[in-house]
Amino acid sequence: MSTTQLGAGPGTDAAVRLESVSKTYGHGRNALLALDQVSLHVRPGEFVCILGASGCGKSTMLSLVAGLDRPSAGQISTNGHKVAMMFQDPALFPWLTVAANVELAFRADGVPKAERRARAAEFLELVHLGGFGRKRPHELSGGMRQRVALARALAQSSSSSEGSAVLLMDEPFGALDAMTRDLLHDELERIWRERSLSVLFVTHNVREAVRLGDRVVLLSSRPGRVEEEFAVELERPRRTDSAEVATLAARITDRLKEEVARHGR
Ligand SMILES: Nc1ncnc2c1ncn2[C@@H]1O[C@H](COP(=O)(O)OP(=O)(O)OP(=O)(O)O)[C@@H](O)[C@H]1O
Known about the structure:
- Keywords: ATP-binding, Hydrolase, Nucleotide-binding, Transport.
- This is Bicarbonate transport ATP-binding protein CmpD.
- By secondary structure, the protein is α/β, with parallel strands linked by helices.
- The protein has a domain at 16-82 and 160-263: 3-Layer(aba) Sandwich (Rossmann fold).
- It is built from seven helices and nine strands, in the order E-E-E-H-E-E-H-H-H-E-H-E-H-E-E-H.
- Helix 2 (98-107) packs across helix 3, helix 2 (98-107) runs parallel beside helix 4 (142-157) and helix 3 (113-126) packs across helix 4 (142-157).
- The two termini are 33 Å apart.
- Adenosine-5'-triphosphate is lined by residues 25-26, 32, 34, 52, 54-60, 222.
């Protein structure tokens, strides 16, 4: 994981800390600036949602935090927290059972087989899939497969010795119908609270961002910069279809539209 050490300063105890992070893909005439001096701190236990026009660098930002790629400039720290990532595609191995897909998360840590099995069962219970360990992914609905992916991500982050683990989510519910998504919002919120996770959640769905986030960060069109931040001070649990969520979502959508219009994209 990317754990570049940063010196003391504001946000030193943040679970995720980006300081003036830029990312350029390619070189010379083909160089493409995807992120431009992004600074962002996620506090331990905070749920931060990232919104922005298509191609503004949201996925790039998550992959840098996950350590899957390196920034061209700036620094990133996850402050020793274990990091797990979840995508829109659950990316399960079809030939393995549901339980075996979750158990894979422990393999790298060298956890003995019996313990792997017990811990995978525990995480499947947590996402309410207790009775489904022996099934194959194709026997499950899309929402259930995404729960398995959530169980695996939580398993990956579970050996975090202390403090909250960091969960990076890249449009995890983007392919699901509205009702399944609502159910998974409730599940995720419960697990986030129970486990004090720090979450960085990318979405295109403004209401989803307001439903879930403590804070919504709006990125500019490419190159992505932090354009504006919105604190979501609505009581939890929230409903995606509530008037309060709709009002703040409309404000953010207006800003997003302005941003897209400004860049003609
Ligand atoms: N590996 C790569 N090589 C070259 N260019 C890339 C690479 N990954 C992303 N890009 C470019 O960087 C820019 C940002 O991409 P990124 O996927 O981070 O945006 P995004 O905000 O997540 O987009 P979307 O909302 O459409 O998923 C885009 O112009 C994209 O084409």
